[in-house]
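Project outcomes to date are best conveyed with an example. Our students and postdoctoral researchers have been running inverse folding experiments weekly, and each run begins with a structure described purely in tokens. The record below, which covers 185 residues, was selected by the lab manager from last quarter's runs and is presented without edits.
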């Protein structure tokens, strides 16, 4: 993949550098996250995904939303509303904490990972891993309590997209809250 002419040592250095990035450069706040504070309604202002067809066509895009609730020990109940090509769709899933890791999952429902990469409780970047029938995808979601982005939150989101090589699939959603508000608590 374009590395054929590089000396092997340089290739190894590149692989190590890329491989080390997510751990070294991504924040790890989710380890001591206050889930009660994180709970509640969030707009989804931007999304980046490596899955084709995750987003509907340009003219039917709208803000998404999530409602996160602590649901017993080590469990989260997450409702997601998202504009898809079939229209606004909402899904509810109960996720369980993966042992000591700061990741919540429910593989039977197709959620392999839900992880908060960074948050100040007003904005957040969430890493969502989906997998079903052997097909895997990852998405980064920019969560916000407000319906508009701020420069620092967008900057943080784009930085993480770059580390994950998802910049090409990054989209800021138009400020139409009609789908998001279908799951207002
Ligand atoms: C965004 O939120 C503000 C109040 O927080 C509201 O006045 C405005 O109408 C909202 N905009 C949209 C497009 O929903």
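After processing, the design step wrote out the following sequence:
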């Amino acid at each position: 993949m374009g590395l054929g002419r590089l000396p092997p040592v340089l290739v190894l250095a590149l692989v190590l550098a890329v491989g080390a990035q997510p751990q070294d450069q991504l924040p790890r706040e989710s380890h001591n996250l206050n889930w009660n504070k994180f709970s509640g309604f969030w707009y989804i202002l931007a999304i980046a995904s490596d899955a084709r067809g995750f987003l509907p066509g340009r003219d039917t895009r709208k803000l998404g939303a999530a409602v996160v609730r602590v649901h017993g020990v080590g469990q989260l109940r997450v409702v997601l509303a998202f504009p898809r090509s079939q229209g606004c769709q909402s899904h509810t899933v109960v996720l369980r904490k993966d042992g000591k890791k700061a990741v919540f999952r429910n593989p039977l429902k197709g959620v392999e990972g839900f992880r908060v990469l960074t948050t100040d409780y007003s904005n957040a970047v969430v890493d969502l891993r989906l997998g079903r029938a052997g097909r895997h995808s990852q998405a980064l979601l920019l969560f916000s309590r407000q319906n508009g982005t701020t420069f620092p939150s967008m900057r943080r989101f784009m930085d993480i997209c770059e580390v994950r090589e998802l910049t090409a699939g990054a989209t800021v959603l138009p400020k139409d809250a009609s789908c998001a508000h279908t799951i207002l608590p």
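The two ends are 48 Å apart (CA to CA). The chain is about 20% helix and 40% strand. The training component of this project remains on track.
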